[in-house]
Amino acid sequence: MTVLDAPLDAPPELDEVEDLHRLPAADVLELLAGLVVERNRVDAQIAAVTRHAELTEAAEHDGLASMRSWLIGHLRLSAAEASRIVRAARLLGHVPHLAAAFAEGSVTAAQVDVVAGAMGESDRARAQEQGIDTGAFNRAFTAVAVSSPHQSLVVAVRAFADALDPDGPEPDPTEGRRLTLSRHADGSVSGRFDLDAIGGEKVRTALEAVVQADRPAGDLRTRAQRQADALVQLADNQLAAGELPVLRTVKPHVVVTIAAQDLVAEGAGPGSAATGFGAVISAARARWLACDGEVSRIVMGPDGTPLDVGRAHRVVTPALRRAVVARDRACVFAGCGAPHHSAEVHHLVHWAHGGQTSLANSALLCERHHSKVHHGFRVWRDPGGRWRTYRPDDTEIIIGPRIE
Q1: Alpha-helix runs per DSSP H in 77-188
Q2: E strand segments, 253-314
Q3: Claim to verify: residue 9 and residue 62 sit in the same structural domain
Q4: Do residues 50 and 157 share a domain?
Q5: What is the pLDDT of residues 199-246, one digit of tens each?
Q6: 12 and 158 assigned to the same domain
């Protein structure tokens, strides 16, 4: 039975149950267990369809390079969730026992992801080179997944990794380094990192230097707070020094967009400004940043569009780029949204064909989609200020319901 052959028996809708409070506990738990089984089966079908779409390069129909980017841009999934689906899609064809259990609903997507993390394409190739029977591990993983706690599967999968590399990790310690940052709804950021012994020593030494240099009398900050402040101070020092790599002709700097009247007004002004990475901050915090920063004035039209910078240049000037970023914020190609610092300013009408280097003739596009619009795809900003994207056959790429 393939994943797509597995029948789906719709569980009872919650509104069909007159009152959950009247159900015996056993019935409530049975209902919940049934819902989880159906979710597992749906997840298995999603992985199967994703695999087919990846093999047939279906994402190219909408101008995107991968199913991961399509899932993020068109279905609004998080990057982590899209990656999990793609990993599962690539794995299931190589682990038939686990795939069957997934299709039946007795294995969860999280369990499949644990296996996928250790049995990627390169891992399977190494196993083949060493004569390791992946089929035996497939059967073992499936048996553990359907009958044991989640952590037991993690331990079992680790045994496969150990079998691939019985002599321990590779000598290059940098291969295990990881850093992830997540931005929350209020603009705050949390993160996690994993460093080797030497990398960790370097980071701790740098942080400790700042911590010990800033210990005013009466300081009530916790150790964790002092280290967080030291990390921000290290970033401040590097940005102020101007020695970081240049991004698209502009030195890295914190970008904050705020209306002039909010900048000069008094009061907190919550939600009045936005940073380059999309966090919404108060006017008070923007004023604080402006106290020791460069202020660039961009005159906005009555419809909220930045006005033309007024000079004609073949090469986009820093001032024009700032205006385009203020308007577009990210790649405007449908379903993309790549951040502005990795994007280029595209001439809608090429300057060689008479197009002006002006705001009205500019669009922010990432490198891939800049190439796409030079090979048949097209972007256009309608009179209402909404960017639209068209395929080479002039059909529009639409994400979600049409908003007129």
Answers
A1: 79-92, 96-104, 109-118, 121-129, 134-147, 150-164
A2: 256-258, 273-275, 280-281
A3: yes
A4: yes
A5: 888 999 999 998 887 776 677 888 998 899 889 888 888 877 777 776
A6: yes
Same domain, 109 and 140: yes
Distances (CA, A) of 311 to 68, 188, 301, 352: 40, 38, 17, 17
Reference 14, options 2, 1, 23; nearest CA is 23
Q: Kindly report the number of other CB atoms within 10 A of residue 385's CB atom.
A: 10
Count helices and strands in the chain by DSSP H and E runs? 14, 10
* Inside any domain, residue 301: no
- Please state the φ and ψ torsions of residue 333, each to the nearest 5 degrees: -65, 135
Output phi, psi for 365, to 5 deg. -135, 140
Q: Are 279 and 379 contained in the same domain?
A: no
In a domain, 402, yes or no: no
Specify the number of domains making up the chain.
4
- 390 SS3 class: strand
Residues 43 and 125 in one domain: yes
Position 369 in a domain: yes
Residues of the domain holding 347: 318-397
Average model confidence (pLDDT) across the chain = 83
Let me know whether 17 and 162 are in one domain.
Answer: yes
Indicate if 114 and 203 belong to the same structural domain: no
404 assigned to some structural domain = no
Summarised one tens digit per residue, pLDDT across range 44-54 is 999 999 999 99
Q: Which has more pLDDT, 161 or 147?
A: 147
The answer for 385, left when phi > 0, alpha when psi is -120 to 50, beta otherwise, is: left
Residue percentage of the chain with pLDDT more than 90: 38
pLDDT band at 334 (very low <50, low <70, confident <90, very high): very high
Share of the chain above pLDDT 70, in %: 82
Q: What is the pLDDT of residue 1?
A: 41
Give the pLDDT confidence score for residue 388 in this predicted structure. Answer: 95
Going from the C-alpha of 258 to that of each of 35, 101, 241, 269, 307, the distances in angstroms are: 47, 54, 25, 10, 16
Q: Quick one: which H or E segment has residue 78?
A: none
